[in-house]
Amino acid sequence: MNSISPDFVFNSPLETGIRSLSILTVEPSTRFDLQQLTAFDYLVVHSGGLKGGPVSLHPDTPNQAGELVIRRSLVEKGLLLMEYKNLVSKLSLDDGFFYEATELACVFIESLTNEYIRELTYRARWVVEKYGRDQALEDAFNFSLENWSKQFQFVEWPLNKREF
Asked: Which pTM does this prediction carry?
């Protein structure tokens, strides 16, 4: 039997799709837009960086703030995969596009039984319950932005050409 390389799964549409699905199945009647799901995805993965949060699902990496730049596209691809498999529905509402879990989503997530999925669903529930409201989510990101800003260092470059 062939095994899948971890590099193939890490940050793939499958991984981000399952994370989004875990978030959407916390409260199956809730709907989140792409921006909210991207923020929740980040918070689920890096929950240890939040006040009172559980240990992060993935190890910390340098320059985590840069992850937000690429995460939106990864989450969107994951949602497309989950939509294709009829686990997520995309809704066009008056105030934008939203995603919600289908009836099959909870059954699918519950059928996954490894330790990673248990840890993921625990963190998804914690994040949605703690930051599911817009203001709470904004507060979490403001707190995180203060920590992220320490990752950036500004270097003063000489303007005199002779010093280069």
From this structure: 0.77
